[in-house]
Amino acid sequence: MNIILLGPPGAGKGTQARKLVDERGMIQLSTGDMLREARTSGTEMGKRVAAIMDAGELVTDEIVIGLIEEKIQGDNGGGFIFDGFPRTLGQADALGDLLAKYKQHLDHVIEMRVDDTALVNRIVGRFTCGNCGEVYHKDTKPTKKDGVCDVCGSEDLKHRADDNEESLRTRLMEYYKKTSPLIGYYYANGKLSSVNGLAEIDKVASSIAAILD
Ligand code: AP5
């Protein structure tokens, strides 16, 4: 089963994707994570990507479509979770073409509905494990032991460079201008379901499970 998690920055896409990986053996394809990896490469392309991400703007369709094509050619295990992709109508069309090319199928698009005012707090309070990628929040999902990742024991806990109010404003604007039209696109395709992303993490997970099952 292949699904898309759709929602603005901080909606909880990464948090729910990681639960689906653990619970269902699905494969998370986060273009944000792939781009963060690319920016550490030190290449000219990596530097350009870093500047775009830090400003909160979108990287070109060509780059992200290329990254996704590399990943979906192999075994899809328990299914792919597209997290943060597609983000434009061009990317959505390209994903449809790629799935057809590799004889895959899109089963569900899950829109995570949230209130914009909740997003600032979520983004500003977020930190992640630099080793395993587990996502935390200082209020709603703190580590059990201060400064130590619950999952892998690493002390490399960090904030993302684009997790500040100024960058978030641009990211939200990009979302409403370029990504939110995908809600209508997938509704018209008959693939769209919505969940309340403001509920507690486990309740959001149950709503998603009800759709997938
Ligand atoms: P990306 O990494 O995809 O970031 P994003 O879409 O802005 O989404 P986030 O990762 O910020 O949020 P999330 O929804 O995953 O929330 P999370 O689960 O972490 O993209 C970053 C950048 O890369 C883009 O700005 C762009 O430049 C570039 N990019 C990426 N993909 C691209 C593409 N396809 N095309 C072009 N450019 C692209 O949760 C947030 C916080 O809230 C956490 O602290 C979490 O613990 C907490 N939380 C989660 N759920 C709940 C809940 N239910 N209740 C309470 N707290 C919760």
Layout of strands and helices, then pairs:
Layout (H helix, E strand, L loop, with lengths): L2 E4 L6 H12 L2 E4 H9 L4 H12 L5 H12 L7 E4 L5 H13 L6 E6 L2 H9 L1 E4 L5 E3 L19 E2 L6 H15 L1 H8 L3 E5 L4 H12 L1
Parallel strand pairs: 1-3, 1-4, 2-3, 4-8
Antiparallel strand pairs: 5-6, 5-7
Helix pairs in contact: 2-3, 4-5
The structure holds BIS(adenosine)-5'-pentaphosphate (AP5).
Q: How does this model look, in words?
A:
The chain has 213 residues and is an alpha/beta fold. It is built from nine helices and eight strands. It has helices spanning 13-24, 31-39, 44-55, 61-72, 89-101, 116-124, 165-179, 181-188, 201-212, and strands spanning 3-6, 27-30, 80-83, 108-113, 126-129, 135-137, 157-158, 192-196. The strands form two sheets. A five-stranded parallel sheet has the order 2-3-1-4-8, with helices on both faces. A hairpin with a 5-residue loop joins strand 5 (126-129) and strand 6. The longest helix is centred in the C-terminal third of the chain and has 15 residues, at 165-179. It is globular and about 45 Å long. The mean pLDDT is 94. BIS(adenosine)-5'-pentaphosphate (AP5) is lined by residues 7, 9-15, 31-32, 35, 52-53, 56-59, 64, 84-85, 87, 91, 122, 125-126, 135-137, 140-141, 162, 171, 200-201, 204.
Distance between the termini: 11 Å
Order of neighbouring strands in the sheet with most strands:
2-3-1-4-8
Rg result: 16 Å
Which molecules are bound in this entry? Answer: BIS(adenosine)-5'-pentaphosphate
**Arithmetic mean of pLDDT:** 94
In short:
The protein has 213 residues and is an alpha/beta fold.
